[in-house]
Structures are given as structure tokens and as C-alpha cells.
Amino acid sequence: MPFFLSFKRNYLSFFFLLLLFSQTLLYPETPTILLSENHFQGHQRITKQIEIWEDKSGKFDFDWVRYHSKELPFQKGSSDYLNYGFSKSVFWIRLRLEKPLKIDPLFLLIKAHNIDYVSFYFSDAFGKVITKKTGHFVKMPDREFPHRNYLVSVPEDSYGKDVYIRIQSDISLQIAVDLVDLKNIHTIDYHEQWFYGLYFGCLGIIILYNLAIAFFVRDINYLFYIGYVFFFGLGQMSMLGFSGYFLFPNSRFFMRNGIPLFFSICMLFFVFFASSFLKLKDRLKIAYRFAHILAIAIILNVIFAATGEIYISAIVLSWLTSILSGFIMIVILWGFYKRIKSFYYFGAAFFILMASSVVYSILKITTFETNAFLEEMIFPIASLVDITLFSFALADRIQLLRLEKDNAIEQIVLHEKERQISKDLLVQALPKAVPYIPSLSIQIFIQPMKQVGGDFYEFYSPNSSELGTLVCDVSGHGIPASLVSAMGKVAFSTQKENIFSPKRVLEGMNRILYGNCTPEYLTASYVYLNTETSTWRFGRAGHPSGFLQRKTGEILTIHPQGKVIGTFPEIQIEEIDFPTKPGDRILLLTDGVPESFNSLDEMYGEERLLDFLKKNANLPGDLWVKELLSDLESFSGKGLKEWEDDITFILLDLK
């Protein structure tokens, strides 16, 4: 029969066959992954052989996907390691396995550690669906196989039938799909756990070593560094799936939130460490302020992670990592430009960390092609080198601190020698005897404090009824102040003919000392007292007031005008005189008395001094001195030898 007649009779059958053929072209069957007994070695990456469909709506369940499977645009895997970045989509994987008879039971392994939901759907010979679930929301003991990756066995009856895998995660998604047998699972786990055990063991040793050093050196940088390494280790364990397996097998919170939470806290410690170690507060204030802004942003991200906002927290973490890397690199380049040694070790360490962090962050934010090395190996290796170099930087800091300590001790020794010399000069220069005036009682107290200053006093008494009393305070401390004190005594000794006039004495001393004691200067009070004529004259040059307390209890605060001595070519001293009577009391002092401070930073002040004078008006001079010292100690909360400034006062009691 002619072919065209045969075609005419069977055109319906031919059309039906053509329709089936076209359907096959439009909706091809799931490609079968053939496992050759001669080539399958117990472990095979099948990511390029699977088919994937992205459900952007995330609303379809397994039954719908299976029923419409031939209509859905499943795409073949494009690489051995698929990278989908941050996505709210649900990803469906479809594959079919053809198992030769002699191959042992097989397992599907999803090579990833940060997936919220992983559901496997297998069909048996009777069409019954076997569902196996894993992921962050399934506790480790509830999984078919507790494993740092996502591992399930392939049911014997599911070979030759479509297998579906549903994957959804709020954290950046990078996956590979492996087919393995039991022997290779153990082999892979053994090698990986040996390597990562060594890695985390090194981190532990670094933490313990630096913790011991921190205990002895008491340096806050070590605490920041230890916090950084500790939470970095927890973050790495979470990212590699070990924290859920070893540390938190029953905690969905830490299995799911651990990566952004631990890495955010780690980053916070690193910001503190970098800011403190590089001394940004003193060296680069704008960078110090920016570091605080970064710290606030990181703290907010910690809150996001702790409250379950994983999607936001993970994205922000990736961006903060890139921003922090760029910021620290700019700071390090500035330190290189300034040739600051502490920046060199830090810069070498951070460059390695920055390079790996930027690569890793780019892979998480984007969908660039990735691989097993970039996903699992680059960060641990780079971080271990980085952390070790940071340890070297801290060790170099210890050496620097040791040198600074040695220099400080040397300076203390030199300062103590200078202090002793100053004290000896001051003590030797003080009057060896108190003038004898029959109708006058003189009480003197002088106490150089922690840093010997230039407080001194001098008397001149030409006869038994006249007395000139000078009290001075030299600016500064140490040997220079002692030398100026000595010059002040010499200058006073040239004014003996002017004993009756405070104005002449102080102005005369200024003319002698001007230009000879720069940059130091003197403040001074001078009193002339004549017991025969009952005369008291008082003048001062930038010095605290004098006090005249009458026998009746009345207190006169005397503060004539006058500039300091040694700074100006000429000064004008105001001179004030008062008649005196038996029983009157005159007090001269330096600023160490009214300017004593307590723990609340309050000053003793003139008001408290006046109250003291009123309350103790009837005390004899020697008891009066002891009571004033006791009152000052009680107010300041410090012992006499702990005061910061010199204390000098002279009490003149008219009998």
C-alpha cells in the first residue's frame, strides 16, 4: 500500500505520536543520574546533574510542585557549588537516581550549614511519598542523621523515581549536592573533623595563652582580643555547622541565629580592639569617632540577630564587614604614612583578614559562582594566620610596654633623686631658729608634699620688738622651684633696711628677681609687726589673704592688691596697716591650705577656714596647729603625706 494511503488511514495515530513527541520536547523527563559500578567511588558531586526551580512566591507545596513538575521551568545546575545569595525564595531541587545492583546503600548530602528548612521527598514503588526533614528548625537529635551538613539516606524503593528537595533559608544560600555511601561519609567526616579540630584547637590555645598574659599584664587590649577570638571561633563553628552538632544540638535559636549573632559580637570586640590597640583616641580622633558609630551599628545588629531578624542581620553583617574592612585599611595606611610601628603587625594581619572577609562577603551578598574552598577553607585559613599575627602584634606591644615600664622606673628613680635633692635644698635654706620677741608666740608649719615645691618663709628681727615675716610660694616643683626659692631668700636679704614697709620689700624683691627666675615666679605675703608701737602692716604679691583675729573673736580678712614677683619689670604693692592689741592673732599661709580637695572635688576654701578660726579662737598656738591639720585631713580624707600641694602657715599670737 502506498505510503500516503497508509498515512491517511493512520493519521490520527501519527498525530497522537507527534503530540507525545512534542510534549517530550517541551517537558522533558527528569534526567537520570547513572551510577556506574566501575566509576562510582562512593562519593560523587551531582550538583551539575540536578535540576533547580526557584519559587519566588514561596507558596507552593510538594503536591502542587509534583503535579505541575513538567510545566515548571526547572534548570540544570550550572556549577558544582550553587550561590543564590540572600533570597526569600524557596528552591526546589529535582533529581532521579538509577542504582546498579552491587552499590551499597547511598545517602544524599546537602553541603551547607545555614539552611532553615530542608525537606526531602522520596517516592516508593507504590507511589507513597517518604518525607525526611532537617535544617535549623529541626533539632539535631530529631534528624535522621545528626550531622553538620544535611544528610539523609536514599530509600531503596526510590531509585528510578523523581526525588524532590525543598530548600528555604533567611541566610545567604550556597549549596552543593553530593551522593555518598556510608564508608565515604565516615571518611569525609574523619578528615574534616581532624582538620577543623586542629583549627579550633589552635584558636583555643591562642585564647588560653593570651588569657594568661592578660592576667599578668592587665592590659585591656588582651581582653578585647580574647573576646574577638572567642566569638570568632563560635561564629566559625556556627558557620561550619559544628556548633549545632557539638555545642547546641537542642537549641534552634543558636543553630539558626548563631552565625550573625556570634560574628556581630566578634566584630564589636574587634572594633574595640583596633581602636584601643592603635590608640585612635589620641592619634586620630575622627577615626575614633567613626569607630564608635560602627560599634553602635554593630550593637543594633546584635539586637537584630538576638531577636530573630536573621535575614536583616545577616545582610547588615555582610555590609558592616565590608565597611569595617575599608575603614581599618584607611587607618592602617595612615599609620604606615606616619611610620608608627604598632600599625605594621596590625596591618599585615588585617590585610589577610580583610581580603578573605571581602571575598566571603561578596559571595554572600551576590550570586557569583563559588566553590568548596571559598565556602569552607579560605576563611578559617586566613583567620588563623590573621589571629596569629595579631598575637605577634600584642607580643610586640608587651615588649614596648616593658621598655616603657623600664623607662618609667628610671624616670621615677631620677625623679625621686631630684625630689630628695629639692627637699634637702629647701630644708637647709629654711631659718634654723625662730626670732625671740618677748610679747609674741610664733608657730610654724611647713610640709613639702609628693612633689617638692617652693614654699618657704623667712624672718628678720633687728631688735626685740620688730619682726618682718615673709611667706612665699614658688610656681612649679622640684629642683628649679628650690633654686628660685634660694634666689628669693637672697632677694629678701637685700631688703633689710625696708623691713618696716611691705610695699618696699616686695617691690624691691621683684626688681631683683625679674628676668632671673623665668619661667617660674613667686607669690608672697609680708608682715611687719612692732610690739612697742602695736603696729601691723601687711602686703601681698599674688598671694592668699592674711587674717587678723581680734581677742574679741572678730576676724579681718586682709587682701591688698599686688601682682606676682618675677614676671613684670615693675609691680605696685598695696600696703595696709592696723593697730594691734594683746591677744590678737595673725595667720599667714600659702594656697595649700584653702586649696585642699576632698573626694568630691570640693575645695576646703576660705569659708571653712574662717569657721575653723571662729571655733578655735581660744586654743593655744601649738594645739591650734594640730587641730587645723586634723581638720584638713578629715575634710580631704587623706593623710598628711598624701596631699598634692605643699602646706605652709605661720601663726603669730600677741601676748
Automatic annotation (TrEMBL):
Domain PPM-type phosphatase: 437-654
Pfam families in the cross-refs: 7TMR-DISM_7TM, 7TMR-DISMED2, SpoIIE
Record-linked PANTHER family: STAGE II SPORULATION PROTEIN E, STAGE II SPORULATION PROTEIN E-RELATED
Protein name: PPM-type phosphatase domain-containing protein
Transmembrane helix recorded as keyword: yes
Ranges that cross the membrane: 194-216, 223-248, 254-274, 286-304, 310-336, 343-365, 377-395
InterPro entries per the UniProt record, alphabetical: 7TMR_DISM_rcpt_extracell_dom1, 7TMR_DISM_rcpt_extracell_dom2, Bact_Sigma-Reg, PPM-type-like_dom_sf, PPM-type_phosphatase-like_dom
Alphabetic keyword roster: Hydrolase, Membrane, Transmembrane, Transmembrane helix
Family matches, as SMART domains: PP2C_SIG
